[in-house]
Write a structure and sequence with these properties.
By secondary structure, the protein is mainly alpha-helical. Helix content is 73%, strand content 4%. The protein is built from 11 helices and 3 strands; from the N terminus they run ααβββααααααααα. The two termini are 39 Å apart.
């Protein structure tokens, strides 16, 4: 374990540093720019939303892509940069230990960012379409007293984003893991090598780790949450109340599949 870890840092140390530098640069750039500086991701997102839904958008400088009928703006906050950072971190650092050569590691760095960019545009377009249409269901939801008091349009928008982004992150992870010929070399197995059975059950927690680390961990580290502590606490609790049940459902599905496969093997002659 120690020898492999030492060899990993000798081979991919520069790749990790380059990845961290790019991620931090993207994070800082996102925090200091407006929609004009994010046209490279807002423009294709608005195009996909318009193509898939037929809803037109026009661009207003420094504001974003606007639809007046729905009173909806695809602004900098809707660019999906946070999800791009999460997905790039997940792909890069979760699967880099699978790669043996340094130049292939740098190649995986580029692939991770490119795939994350394309995936973010597609997923964010789907999230925006849901955010346009699902609020129309609020009158029906309002007939349920417990939800009527809590589920405001703003909270519904937040919940939609968490469900779509986190579910897509889980999907991205399992697709990427299935593409590697030897998944036993993925980062989750290396972290839990002492207990392979435990590793096989917990490798799907990596998407949750990166999602929580970027969305909740970074604001805590740079103390950005102190600007509006109450809003951050509500956002953090919403993330936990949405993501934890999703993880539980995923775990139960995986357990059911495992039990079904085991029982099927016993029945076979």
């Amino acid at each position: 374990m120690y020898a492999h870890r030492k060899n990993f840092w000798q081979t991919h140390g520069l790749t990790c540093l380059a990845g961290i530098f790019l991620l931090l640069t993207l994070k800082i750039y996102y925090s200091r720019t407006d929609s004009d500086g994010l046209l490279w991701i807002l423009a294709p997102t608005a195009w996909w939303v318009r193509t898939l839904s037929g809803i037109p958008f026009e661009y207003l400088p420094h504001a974003g892509y606007v639809n007046h009928s729905f009173r909806f703006v695809i602004a900098a906050s809707c660019s999906g940069i946070q999800f791009l950072i999460v997905s790039a971190s997940l792909l890069l650092f979760s699967f880099l230990p699978r790669i043996r050569r340094r130049k292939d590691g740098f190649g995986w760095l580029g692939i991770s960012f490119f795939v994350s960019y394309v995936f973010t545009v597609l997923v964010n377009s789907f999230r925006i379409i849901l955010s346009l249409y699902l609020p129309l269901c609020l009158p029906a939801i309002g007939k349920i007293p417990p939800l009527a008091r809590w589920l405001t349009p703003e909270r519904l928008h937040t919940v939609i984003g968490i469900v779509v982004y986190f579910g897509s992150l889980l999907f991205l992870f399992f697709i990427a893991e299935s593409l590697f010929q030897r998944p036993e070399r993925c980062f989750s197995r290396l972290l839990l090598m002492q207990n392979p059975l435990l590793a096989a059950d917990l490798r799907w927690l990596l998407p949750a780790f990166w999602y929580f680390a970027v969305l909740l961990g970074l604001p805590l580290l740079n103390r950005a949450c102190l600007h509006n502590r109450q809003a951050f606490m509500e956002y953090a609790l919403t993330i936990l109340f949405v993501c934890l049940p999703m993880l539980l459902i995923l775990y139960l599905v995986r357990l059911a599949i495992k039990l079904f496969s085991a029982s099927r093997k016993k029945l076979l002659p």
